[in-house]
Here is the input.
Amino acid sequence: MPSSVTYSSTRGGETNLDFRSVVMQGLASDRGLFVPDTMPQVSLDELQAWRSLGFDELAVQVIRKFVGDDQVPLPTLRDIVRRSCAAFRTKEVTPLVSVGGHQVLELFHGPTFAFKDVALQMLGNFFEYFLATGSNGGRLAVLGATSGDTGSAAIAGLRGKKGIDCIILFPNGRVSAIQERQMTTIPDANIHCVAIDGTFDDCQDLVKASFDTPVFRNKVHLGAVNSINWCRVLAQTTYYFWSYLRVTDNGDAASNDKVSFSVPTGNFGDVLAGYYAKQMGLPVNKLIVATNENDILHRFFTKGEYHRYDIAHTISPSMDICVSSNFERYLYALAGNDASRLAEWMIDFERTKRLTIAGDLLEQAQSDFVSARADTDATLAVIKDYYETYDYLLCPHSAVGVSAIHQLNMVQANVVCLATAHEAKFPAATSRVVVDLPEPPRELAVLSELRTRRSELPNDLKAVQDFVEDCVFKKKKRRRLAKFVKEPTCLMVIGAVAVAILVQQAIVRRKY
Here is the structure.
């Protein structure tokens, strides 16, 4: 096969890096994101040949377009992908079901019941392989930010991995109770969950600022699990190919049947994977960017206005994002792969919080994506309707994507809505319109019985970097605001022990 694809920063500061380097580095040193220097192509004949493959081998073939033996030998790549897929509860990994006249791609059958498991299981195994074969001297400090699902999926992919410390920042009080417990109940010593006094965008800014601190970055061997890491986007392209083949199983890919995808969108990484799949030659018709009230992307694709507003707290918290970190990759393509032009756009946006396009650029963007916005009332209406009509319960994020195809009059058999999380992760939202919720999966139900541990930090870069160094170098016993939260039974035991100690002390005083 041809040699592996190389990568360069969207802002031009780093060029021609290999796959291993961009995976381990995460963010470019000029604060840009790594993008492929060339886009491999998949022919219709190849698609037909892939039709009979299982998900794991199909994923190998897609990733193989970018990653050759010079980066990861084929037997090793197969092992990485197969071990990653083995963590899912279904052999299909991401099964496709027909509901309400359209398709639903169920991306929630992984360890943490969210779409991010697909990419983060693979990323964790790629990290493990690269560390074992010489990268970073075998050490990596992964620093990530989460609005809900990335954190638990990253933790599931990295827990217990040799040489890796995983530090996840999440906005205190702004993730669902189950999402928080999925992170904070993990006992592995290399996992560190940190509640930040701020929003998800604050957490994301802390991560980016840490990567933009060279001395710190190099000292701790900083790595990224957020979708700024190219491996995340690459891994997610696999299920676009998979679902296309399943939708067209009764037809012939050579007939150029096209499939559309509606994607609940926050950080833009998931729908960007669909965009890249289309650039590779996958017959995609429309890519629908579906947003909640935090609609910066909808405003961009309808009016050309990428203007930062304050975050609204919604029932779909994983989409409560006002700046989409992956959007820079698309803007780079929109700028004609011109790194200088893109850098000017981003510097101006970082200064003014505004980026506006018009004319030919807006027309191009609107030919690449369409968009829709679903507020809380619209989201709840879809959840209620689909449960009562089709006995199918959507999570609030997935319902945003389904709402979008109804708004755009695109309810068709060749339209796929990405179901990004299991509904049981958001009972507070779904119970508003569904009286008797189904029993949650056992893996989620037991979370309330488990001990949790987390740390709390202010929205302060130095505090976060000091915490990371403590985790990595074990310089001192962590005396941050670590809270080991006990369940009631544990508190009763502690109380009984305390009473026994007081009684013993009273007896001693009586004697003397």
